[in-house]
Specification:
The relative contact order is 0.14. The protein has an 8-stranded parallel sheet with strand order 8-7-6-5-4-3-10-9. A two-stranded antiparallel ribbon has the order 1-2. The protein starts with 5 loop residues before the first strand and ends in a 5-residue tail after the last helix. It has helices spanning about 40-50, 75-90, 105-110, 130-135, 160-180, 200-205, 210, 225-230, 235-250, 265-275; strands at about 5-10, 15, 20-25, 55-60, 95-100, 115-120, 140-145, 185-190, 220, 255-260. Helices cover about 40% and strands about 15% of the residues. The structure holds 6-hydroxymethylpterin-diphosphate.
Amino acid sequence: MLRPSSLRLKDGRRIRFPAVTAVLNVTPDSFSDGGLYLDARRAVERGLELAAAGADIVEVGAESTRPGAAAVAVEEELARLVPVLEGLGSRLKVPISVDTRKAEVARRALALGAAVVNDVSGLRFDPAMAAVAAQAKAAVVLMHMRGTPATMGRMARYRDVVAEVKSELAARARMAVRCGIRADRILLDPGFGFAKKAADNLKLLRGLPQLCRLGYPIMVGVSRKRFLRRIAGSADAALSGATLAASLLAVLAGASLVRVHEPGPAAAALKVVRAWRALGAV
Ligand code: HH2
């Protein structure tokens, strides 16, 4: 199957690939920006900043999914999220994605204008999620994970990580289609750092061309993750460089979207990729 070169959203807007999704976590405990944007006004400013820096999509998340993170109740997640979505409202010129595993949170976010739902559980966590996404004609990111953020550390056991992630993602996509989500609204994500050991993450990065053969656009979220810290160190400049390098490798291996905390460098890097590709095959 030929992978699409863009994603059409319910409001007619089109995201051309490769594209940048910028992360905005309105949580006290996210591993990269936790605690920075709990104040809704600061979060809204940050969202506008991310778009100005080159994000094609701004993704707002109100529940951390880092290893071992505590679950957040629906009411708390909504209390963090709703003022930010309302504040971004018509001011944000790029589409909004909501990072949530909960159908009720997705439903509210979609009603407030979000166009994409990013579900790190790949629709496994909340049985009502698929119907909410289908009804709202949302684009949906199905991420691969085993277990939950609390238990996934124990579930990183693979004989062939690329083949297993590929077949589990294919099953999630089939399930989404059965639930009424149109295939051209589905994106897949191998879930770097989610039930993966450091070596599994690297194998998945190399194995992306195989995942691309599923025919769906692939999103890759390697930004500042632990396996990159192990390779490049934890200094800020090292992490930024490692994130950019890994994101670029992912795009060259076929990824359509990179999910990052710093959209500026990623957007500039993708401009270079486009210029390089415009010259045709090497
Ligand atoms: N990574 C994180 C959260 N959501 N969603 C997708 N589709 N892919 C990812 O790789 C991914 C994700 C973790 O990063 P972050 O949002 O910065 O941290 P936290 O979950 O602690 O808020």
